[in-house]
Design a protein that fits this description.
The structure holds 2 protein chains of 2 kinds. In chain A, strand 1, helix 1 and strand 2 form a beta-alpha-beta unit. Helix content of chain A is about 50%, strand content about 15%. Chain A has 10 helices and 7 strands. Chain A has 2 domains: about 120 residues, Response regulator (Rossmann fold, 3-Layer(aba) Sandwich); about 90 residues, Orthogonal Bundle (Arc Repressor Mutant, subunit A), CATH 1.10.10.10. Chain B is α+β, with helices and mostly antiparallel strands. A 6-stranded antiparallel β-sheet of chain B has the order 8-7-6-11-10-9, with helices on both faces. In chain B, strands 2-1-5-4-3 form a 5-stranded antiparallel β-sheet, with helices on both faces. In chain B, strand 6 and strand 7 form a beta hairpin.
């Protein structure tokens, strides 16, 4: 039996996904959580094979939960389940160190298939796309503008994250404390966060209106 | 002095009486008395005449000071002066900054006479002498005076002359000229009367100038209040246009230009021009370095610019301009631009007061403009925040609900027997999935601004589809699947954008379709662009022509392009591997 833990703050989603999973002969739901705090405690207690994590949680991010699990309980495989679009979901999964992501589509998301693969230890992230997503960020002409905001340190961290390293491993390789790495990851997350994007646009507006002035003259 | 003269004559008469005491005739004392009496009468007459003239002077002074408009004041001065001394001709010349005559107001000469002469005096000869040395000049005959430079041919004959300077606050404002006394020559009394009148005239002119200035200040400040009101109103006003139009009238200018920074930091662009040649001037840019505008920008001080310099003010003008002032537009300590206000060549130079008022006006208007800009920015912020909120709501609630509901339907589907009901549920699930995909595109569009110049593939595809939707009865349905932005970049992205554009153009031109859908999908190492339309299929000629490009683009990338019509739907599928090279 593949033991699955479900983390999502929407009950209707949890119910739907649980129905779907329980209908499979080789899968069972061993627990559910609606918040990041609940998830951390309960997952550590039940040690599922696969944790299905939503990115947006009322008290934090599924990405943070996933990275914590990487350190604390490496046997738990994480799968990001998100309403994001593919590009954002891929970034989220890479940063989280998850084995893959599944979009909140009803058909064609291959949720069941994905859970089986991940439980067997496979990574669903195409290595080519993983590299593309991370390497040379900001050097591509059409790179995601959000990523241009990252500092070089953050990019360095992101590159190591892309290699699937945990916070502790990144800390060792960069000679930094694990806590520092955790801060970098939080900063990365907030920079790539959907909610922050409108503010980034607003900042851009300010820059535009400033350039109209001849302040230096 | 007059009294003194009279006394001397009367005293002399009495002395004579005493000396002739010895010659006594019976009638002698009486004859003497007659003589004295007649002398007294004549002196009294003189006194009366003098008093009459003093009264006339009073009246004249009153007449002058009653006026408040400067042109009327000046004319009245000349009129009363001519009347006061009984001159045939009179004139008032207003001295300009360069010692010439700025204005020449004359009376006595008919319009025809004046037109025959053709031009007004410029302040040479005798008129110039009075400008150079502002002291009264009194002559019996103008033509014999060495300072005279003669008259133009059509000028009426003039002989007697009296000229006195008119001072305003100790500065020579101009001169009062009188000629051809109707009876005899100009007397010392006339000179004194004119000097006295000139003093009153000076005060009247000063008052009139103050009055005019007050009126002008009022006009500027009223306009300033009006403009501020216009800026803070909700209407979408172009601040610079309002400012330029207002200044054109207020400053009695012929051309007002507002120069703002351009993309190129070394050049200013005339963003708004009002007045002569506004069409040509607007949008023209000129280098900042070395221009007079540069000094204004640097000093942040307004500047008066004379006619000779003014021609080069904005990197050369398309029209010749005269006196000019350049005023910095300051707001919150930043120079936003420069306002250049010009009159026609030969126009009145702007005064320091004009400049002060224009600078004050520009300052207020610029602050108002900056405030209204700030308000517009805030409104855009609110809009963006709104969009962000809508995007979050769609993401956090709508998609989740649809997803949950869809999953539930799916599990219901597993429990019922195949049949029409199952098929309907199945279709409903597909529709929900499509709705979710559409909402994702909407979220993406809502939560990303237009400000980024480095647009991602999805942005570019959305733009192309929006563009095409103008030519279609219904907006095309657009879907993305897979990490499109991450997988496709560089020249491949350019190709994908071109493919979407060409495919849509083909549909618009040839298919007369009512619904079109576009999908860009990334999966298994390839990017696939699919367009589906319900228009006329490929059997109809014409549709093929636009498609050759799509073929060759696919070939060049080792991809493929297929198009076919099944059940009234035409599918065009273009695909190319995205590889790992990152190109």
């Amino acid at each position: 039996m593949i033991r699955v833990f479900l983390v999502d703050d929407h009950e209707i989603v949890r119910r739907g996904v649980a129905d779907l999973i329980e209908a499979q002969p080789d899968m069972e739901i061993v627990g559910e959580a609606a918040t990041a705090a609940e998830a951390r405690g309960r997952i550590a207690a039940v040690l599922p094979d696969v944790a299905l994590l939503d990115v947006h949680l009322p008290d934090g991010s599924g990405i943070d939960v996933c990275r914590d699990l990487m350190n604390a309980t490496p046997s738990v495989h994480c799968l990001i389940l998100t309403a994001y679009d593919d590009d954002q979901a891929l970034y989220a999964a890479i940063i989280a160190g998850a084995s893959g992501y599944v979009l909140k589509d009803i058909r064609g998301n291959g949720l069941i298939e994905s859970i089986r693969l991940v439980a067997g230890g496979a990574s669903l992230i195409d290595p080519a796309l993983r590299r593309k997503a991370v390497v040379g960020l900001g050097t591509h002409k059409h790179a995601d503008p959000r990523l241009a905001q990252l500092s070089s340190r953050e990019r360095e961290v992101l590159a190591l994250i892309a290699d699937g390293l945990s916070n502790r491993e990144i800390g060792l390789s960069m000679s930094l404390a694990e806590k520092t790495i955790k801060n970098y990851v939080s900063s990365l997350l907030s920079k790539l966060d959907l909610q922050r994007r409108t503010q980034a646009v607003a900042i851009q507006l300010d820059v535009d209106s400033d350039s109209r002035r001849l302040a230096e003259r | 002095m007059l009294q003194h003269l009279r006394c001397a004559r009367m005293c002399g008469a009495l002395d004579g009486m005493q000396q002739n005491d010895a010659l006594t005739f019976p009638d002698a004392p009486r004859g003497e008395l007659d003589r004295v009496l007649s002398e007294l009468v004549s002196v009294a007459g003189d006194v009366l005449a003098t008093q009459g003239r003093l009264r006339a002077l009073l009246r004249a002074s009153q007449a002058i000071t009653q006026q408040l408009e400067l042109p009327l004041v000046l004319r009245k001065i000349v009129e009363v002066a001519v009347e006061l001394v009984g001159a045939e001709y009179g004139a008032l010349g207003v001295v300009d900054a360069h010692g010439g005559l700025e204005q020449f107001i004359h009376v006595g000469m008919t319009k025809e006479d004046a037109e025959k002469i053709g031009r007004l005096p410029e302040g040479h000869g005798l008129l110039g002498a009075l400008i150079d040395d502002p002291r009264p000049i009194r002559l019996l005959d103008i033509s014999t005076d060495p300072r005279s430079s003669g008259f133009p041919p059509e000028h009426p004959a003039m002989d007697t002359f009296l000229g006195v300077p008119v001072r305003v606050r100790n500065e020579v404002y101009g001169n009062l000229y009188l000629s051809n006394r109707k009876v005899g020559e100009f007397t010392a009394d006339d000179e004194e009367l004119m000097t006295a009148l000139a003093a009153t005239a000076g005060i009247a002119i000063d008052n009139a100038r103050l009055f005019a200035e007050t009126k002008r200040r009022q006009a500027w400040s009223a306009a300033s209040a009006e403009i501020t009101a216009a800026f803070v109103s909700d209407e979408d006003n172009d601040a610079a246009v309002l400012i330029a139009s207002a200044v054109l009238t207020l400053a009695e200018a012929a051309l007002v230009r507002i120069a703002l920074p351009s993309q190129d930091p070394t050049r200013l662009i005339i963003s708004v021009a009002r007045g002569i040649g506004e069409d040509v001037e607007e949008g023209r840019s000129f280098p900042v370095i070395g221009s007079l505008v540069e000094t204004v920008l640097e000093s942040r001080q307004p500047r008066l610019i004379g006619e000779p310099e003014a021609t080069a003010i904005a990197g050369g003008n398309t029209h010749q301009v005269g006196p000019t002032m350049a005023v910095p537009m300051l707001a919150h300590g930043d120079v936003l631009g420069v306002m250049i206000v010009s009159r026609l060549p030969g126009g009145f130079p702007f005064t320091a007061t004009d400049m002060e008022m224009a600078a004050d006006f520009a300052g207020r208007a610029t602050v108002a403009m900056a405030l209204s800009d700030g308000r517009a920015d805030r409104q855009r912020m609110v809009l963006l925040e709104d969009r962000g909120r809508i995007a979050r709501d769609l993401h956090d609630h709508v998609i989740q609900q649809l997803f949950g509901t869809g999953l539930e339907l799916q599990s219901v589907l597993g429990t019922i027997v195949p049949g029409p009901a199952a098929e309907r549920i199945d279709r409903a699930i597909s529709e929900i999935d499509k709705a979710i995909a559409q909402i994702r595109v909407a979220i993406f569009t809502l939560s990303s601004g237009k400000s980024s110049k480095e647009d991602t593939l999805r942005h570019r595809v959305i733009d192309v589809v929006n563009e095409a939707s103008r030519s279609l009865s219904e907006s095309p349905r657009l879907e993305f699947s897979g990490p499109v932005d991450i997988a496709v970049s560089g020249t491949l992205a350019d190709d994908v954008v071109a493919v979407v554009r060409e495919a849509l153009t083909n549909v618009v031109k040839h298919a007369s379709a009512s619904t079109v859908s576009v999908s860009v999908a990334v999966a298994d190492g390839a990017v696939v662009v699919t367009t589906v339309d319900d228009g006329v299929g490929l059997t109809m000629s014409g549709r093929r022509s636009g498609l050759a490009n799509l073929d060759s683009r696919a070939d060049a990338r080792g991809g493929s392009f297929d198009i076919g019509t099944i059940d009234g739907k035409t599918n065009a599928v273009w695909s190319a591997p995205y590889g790992t090279a990152g190109a």
